[in-house]
Amino acid sequence: MLTRASAPLTFVALALLTITTMSREAAAQDRWAAIAPNLENSSTVVWATSKDQAKKLAVLACKQFSSTCADSPASTNGMDHVFAVMCCTDPKTGCAAAVGSTREIALKEVKRLFNEGGYAQCSLKSYFKAGTGEKG
Description:
single chain, 6 strands, three-stranded antiparallel beta sheet, 136 residues, 26% strand, alpha+beta, globular
């Protein structure tokens, strides 16, 4: 049974528990995944604590294995999201990645990017899971 004297302590303990829980949730959301695709389809997903940092790391990781890296990596802070990587050859060769909550949405987004740019002769190279980097 709560007494008048213990009520403030109970309130403080509950407030601290709530703040701790909110801090853990916020920390869990401070993870960004990014990928910079290349013609060789050798790109990997990288992670960082900010969108900009993840994008920079994605380009650096790609350039370790390729000279054909995209300058604009795709990124997300949704670790359950999926990246779709596609390359096109007309009017020139290029690759891009887009992200979505499902494979279908990611594919639709990357197709939209290329359609808006006037590209054709496109083929899907791979899917990557944002949270694990796993292909497929």
